[in-house]
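Hey L., structure's done. Input below.
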Amino acid sequence: MQLPIYLYGQSVLRKKAEEIGPDYPGLPELISNMQDTLEHAEGVGLAAPQVGLPIRLFIVDLRPLTDQEPSFSGYTRSFINPKILEYSEDTEILEEGCLSVPGIQENVARSRKIVLQYQDIDFKQHKEVFEDYVARVIQHEYDHLNGKVFTDRINPIRKQLVKGKLNNIAKGRVECTYKTRALR
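Output:
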C-alpha cells in the first residue's frame, strides 16, 4: 500500500526520531508499504519521518539505478535504529533531490565513506562500511531521522534562492506523481 509522503514544512520532518524495538507494531507491513511508496515515487531512499512516523527507520532501494551501475541490481535494504559511527574527511559534492522536497535539486557535500551501525528487520546488529553513492543515500536518509532535510546542507546563497520554492512546497503548491501530505 502506498503511503502519502510528507512534504517540506511538516513538523515530523524536523523531529529527532525515536528508536524502536522488535515489538514495534506492524513493522514488516510498514517496511513493505514504504517499499511500495518508494517504488511508485521513483526514489532511491525513504525514511519513516517522510511517511509521518518519527521512528529510526529508513529503506534504500538502488535497483532503479542498475542501468547506470550494474552492482545496484537487487540492492534493497532496511536500516533500523542506525547510527553513523564515522564519517570520512574525504567528501564529494553531488546534486541531490528529495521526495519530501519535490522539484528542487541542489549540490550537497557528503562524506565518501561512512561506518554505520544498524539493525536489520530481525533486529540483528550490524556494523558496516559504505562508500560513494550508497554512503551518500544513507547519509541523506539518516539526516531525516535527525530532523534535517538536504536543503539544510546547501550553500546559504542557494538556500535564499530556493526559499520561495520551499514555501510553495510547504503550502502544497507543487505537482507530484505520488501521494503527498502538505501543511493544511
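The chain has a mean pLDDT of 96. DSSP finds three helices and nine strands in the chain.

-- N.
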